[in-house]
Amino acid sequence: MPFSRWANFDACKLEMMNTGHDEESAKKICGSIQTRAEKGELFKGEITELDIINKEDDLVVGGFCTWELQDPQNDVITTQAQVKFLQSFFKLDPEYQNITVKHGDFKVGKPILKYVNKKGEEFYSHVNEKGTYLISKIRNDSFKSTLLWRQKILQGELGMYSISGLPIEKREIIQGSEVVRYIDDLEPWAVTLCEKGVNPKAKVQVISKEITEPLHKREEQNRDSLSCESLLQKHGFNKIHKGSL
User: What distance in Å separates the CA atoms of residue 166 and residue 179, rounded to the nearest whole number?
Assistant: First the structure.
């Protein structure tokens, strides 16, 4: 039976397995989405958030990299493009799976497909019915740069994800008085932690950290303008939803 954007459960499971999940994880992800569909609780773009799960040795952050919504530049990254982006991103050599800072060169962390906290709660990087949820583990060493960026994450100064990529398949549709560009395929360059994103209320949340205070709420900020010359697509994400997916 069809649910959300999938023709059936097996189609959803296959997509998750193509991202890199094993069959058991794929079933859990799709099962959660199917349950939301049956309850009429599918995501439609509302601002939602995830609580801090618990205190761990590692600093792990999660959030929506992008959401299928029209941004201020009239761009929409479709779920089709998001699926291709995430699958390509995790198939890259780990050397090129870059979690950077402010679209710079410093590699502050690495993406992870699955994270399990000490309570046994599971979190998965995946594309759900509306957006791309990504988990990343922040590096922990004695470099001054690392300590600086970790502190900024914990203080909420770096509060959102953004993606860099090259649109390689796009179409323009006239909607009313506007021309909206739908991006159906996006070649991944990097995911970055930054201060500004498409959604001024968007923020990344810490789902595992060494100290107990939560991220501070950030004031609404405007997104940096898109640079056509550099072809960088800077797309923000919504707050994480509560739950283990």
Answer: 20
Adjacent-strand bridge partners of 54:
208
| pTM for the structure as a whole | 0.78
160 or 19, greater pLDDT: 19
Give the integer Cα–Cα distance in Å for 211 and 37: 36
How far from the centroid of its chain's Cα atoms is residue 192's Cα? 10
Please state, in angstroms and rounded to a whole number, the distance separating the CA atoms of residues 118 and 27.
22
What the block records as the tokens of 10 is: 């097996």
Task: Identify the H or E element spanning 115.
Answer: strand 114-116
CA 144/CA 190 separation, integer angstroms = 22
Residue 32, number of CB atoms within 10 A of its CB:
17
CA distance 37 to 35: 5
Instruction: Tell me the per-residue pLDDT of 146-173, one tens digit each, with 9 for 90 and over.
Output: 999 988 888 777 777 888 888 999 999 9
**Nearest alpha-carbon partner for 134 in 191, 58, 64, 193:** 64
Tokens at residue 113, please? Answer: 């497909």
**Region label for 53, one of left (φ > 0), alpha (ψ between -120 and 50) or beta (otherwise):** alpha
Question: What is the domain partition of the chain in residue ranges?
Answer: 1-42, 50-209
Q: Residue ranges of the alpha helices (H) in the chain?
A: 9-19, 23-39, 79-91, 144-155
Report yes or no: 42 and 4 within 8 Å, Cβ to Cβ: yes
| Alpha carbons 243 and 92: distance in angstroms, whole number | 28
